[in-house]
Amino acid sequence: MSKSLVGFIILVAGVLGYWFWGGEKAYEIKNMPITVSRIVCFGDSLTRGIGASRGMDYPARLEEMTGIEIINSGVSGDTTADGLARIEDDVLDYEPDVVLITLGGNDLKNRVSADTARANLLSIIQRIQAAGTMVVLGGIDIPLYGKGYAQMYEALARQTGSVLVPNILEDLFGNPELMSDSIHPNDKGYEIMAGYFYKALDGLPFVVD
Predict the structure, then answer these.
(1) 60 in Cβ contact with 28 (< 8 Å)
(2) Domain residue limits at 119
(3) Is residue 92 part of a domain?
(4) Global pTM value
(5) Number of folded domains that form the chain
(6) What is the pLDDT of residues 158-184, one digit of tens each?
């Protein structure tokens, strides 16, 4: 790759760092990669793909969209504390360029405070960013039951310079045509969810090793 091309990519990445989610809410994104050849999807049952047919979970669909290696490190039932405990083996050892996080739903279900979930997520994000990796944070915004989680995700993304997908279940939650049960999407729902993350990665140069 020529120096001029690398310089152009870095320039574009810097611009995108301020562009994500646009308008007055724009902020600088940390660790924008020059190229992306491997992504780890790290989370709970929404990452694992509960409710999806084989090969129809959101990481698998995202792999189809990007053409690069996507590793599914989702564990059903995981809380933010559980995620923090396994971050080394299930995320950092893969040396990804980008990590997509979907954690916090089980904390909310288990009535863990948003402050506690935020502290765990902050530790997770800081460890990932210390390895030079960009983070995309998938938020949850459940009407009448959010308990401050939506605001927590937004504040955390700003604090850490993570890309934010404000609500990974937007237009899915409560829609029986897109959900396999009250919590998990079906095949079509996971495809939409993958699309949200794909949009968050828009402009990044995907390169197959």
Answers:
(1) no
(2) 3-200
(3) yes
(4) 0.88
(5) 1
(6) 999 999 999 999 999 999 999 999 999
